[in-house]
Design goal:
Keywords: Membrane, Signal, Transmembrane, Transmembrane helix
Mean pLDDT: 81
Structural class: mainly alpha
Strand content: under 5%
Low-confidence stretches: none
Helix content: 55-70%
Family: Belongs to the membrane magnesium transporter (TC 1.A.67) family.
Radius of gyration: 32 Å
Subcellular location: Endomembrane system
Membrane topology: Multi-pass membrane protein
Distance between the termini: 68 Å
Order of helices and strands: HHHHH
Number of strands: 0
Protein name: Magnesium transporter
Length: about 140
């Protein structure tokens, strides 16, 4: 995560903490008001329990800002298909999997098909056919 995404996420967390504190204070004030007015008249149950619109908007904005900060801090997505991913590894190597700090990603394993390409017991039939054909022509 870069400093922009960290600061955006921190600002969103600060806004969310303020919204939570405001919601708690609002509910505490409503409870105190309901307790003090209970001796005078019966309280209306639905009217006083709703949060003010500014607290609701602040909560939604804080959630969106936190989401934006997290999205800005994610690394680039890898291809879904293995063959495309292996092609990217062969073309770019470790340079294609560096994060914003210049370090190679922890999940980088290299070419996933390297075991198939370097099998010691693998028999290359085409190569043997060509060698046999060359041998037959030579004799």
């Amino acid at each position: 995560m870069g400093w922009i995404s960290k600061s955006t996420s921190a600002f969103g967390m600060l806004l969310l903490a303020h919204a939570c504190y405001s919601a708690h204070e609002h509910s505490a004030l409503i409870a105190y008001r309901a307790a003090s007015l209970s001796s005078l008249a019966a309280p209306q149950p639905g009217a006083a329990s709703a949060l003010p619109i500014d607290i609701t908007i602040e909560t939604i904005v804080a959630t969106l800002i936190i989401s934006l900060g997290l999205v800005l801090g994610t690394s680039t997505l890898r291809p879904v298909q293995w063959r495309v991913w292996a092609g990217q590894i062969e073309r770019e190597g470790e340079a294609g999997f560096k994060d914003s700090n210049g370090e190679v990603d922890k999940t980088y394993i290299g070419n996933p098909f390297r075991l198939l390409e370097s099998r010691p017991g693998f028999v290359d039939v085409r190569k043997q056919r060509k060698e046999f054909a060359d041998w037959v022509k030579a004799t």
